[in-house]
Task: structure prediction
Amino acid sequence: MNVKPVKEPIITRIVNHFKRLVEDYKNAVIETGSVIKEKPIRVALYSALTASAGYLYAHNPSMANYEGHLAMITCDQAEVGNTIRNTEKCQQIQSILEHHCHGRLRRFTFGLFSVIWVSEYPKYIDLYEAQCKDVQMTWGEWPKYIVDIGILDHWRWTEQYMVDFDINPLEWDHSSASNSKDEKVEK
Result:
């Protein structure tokens, strides 16, 4: 006997599909509610971790953000005279700006934070050493090339360079040395 299965009309199949879909979601919500009642601390911890990760991901700075940050730093440094600037911190910023001008800065994102690092070659170089994966640096060497770390819309290391960039320690050393000479003369 050849019995052919009865084919349901398409509207009936669509309605059945959505009924099963609603039933699946209803069961998932019921199971989730029971897990929340059984283990509220674990659920709260997982929820907090997920929310934190989502917030970090949403506020992960981009390369354009870093370039704007460098422009602001350059403007801040231009407003301060050479005799007042902290030469060590300004040299670090100038080094980063040179790498940026030569196209050697790269951004690698870990999703929750970003790392700016200096490549040995600019992006546009087609040398064998620049393109071959076997000759490029390893992960063990990579920390030496890191220039900045970005998290929560801030670039930590360049912001740290700018904390006292307008205080020249040599200026203070010179004045304290002259003050100590004056004190010796008075005694």
Summary: The first strand starts at residue 105 and ends at 109.
